[in-house]
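Entry 0007
Protein: NAD(P)-dependent dehydrogenase (Short-subunit alcohol dehydrogenase family)
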Amino acid sequence: MVSQAKFEGRAEFEGRAEFEGKTVVVTGAGGGLGTAIVALMAQRGARVVGCDQSSEALKSPHLASRHVFDLLDKASIAAAIAAILDRDGMPDILVNNAGWTRAETISALNPDKIEQELDLNLTGVMNFADPLVKAMAGRGSGSVVFISSVNAIAHFGNPAYAAAKAGINAYAKAIAVELGRSGLRSNVVCPGSIRTAAWDHRLAKDPEILGKLQRLYPLGRIVNASEVAEAVAFLASDRASGITGVVMPVDAGLTAGCLPFIDDILGA
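Output (structure tokens):
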């Protein structure tokens, strides 16, 4: 039975102590969202292990350890897992953040793009997570957070990426259901649009695109990386000890309903 003192300790939470003594592995650690997750976890006391596809992406001073591998390369993944376990030990928290997309509509798809986006965003993520997840369950504790997308909940373009992220949501629930009794929690954060470098190619085509986005979001803006990182930290933490198998949108209300329908059709 959990003591009342433990709950009182959570209520008296002080940011830096939350992840003290914890090892957190973050993939895609050098990206816009990854950088925010790394910084927040480190600020709250975690020993953060960063993973990305190049050493140049892993320059953050918040990283205690760095591993370079390619999610499209099984041998690279296997070598990275062995190196992480050897050098850093079994993680307490695994944040599967890495992902990428460019095929924005069905007309942009072809067999090569379909294969690449599914392999990178689903198959590669599962190949990396699976051995670590099983090891954490074997130990009897751990928390896994997957970064998915609102594209996995409703269609906002990027069909191959969306299909892969929908698969991630299903995989996360499978972990939650099958390994919960082994002390493992698994949850998903589904961001809406975030202003990171991933939007640069769209801004190059249309510098006004961020302004156009505002009318789609009930909060009148898109979310920022730090807001998504806060959701990741919460789900990873003991504060969410009773939460597993959850798919949480962090999207300024985008998936709650269609605001342009209210504005344009109902005239509210």
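Curator remark: DSSP finds nine helices and seven strands in the chain. The first strand starts at residue 23 and ends at 27.
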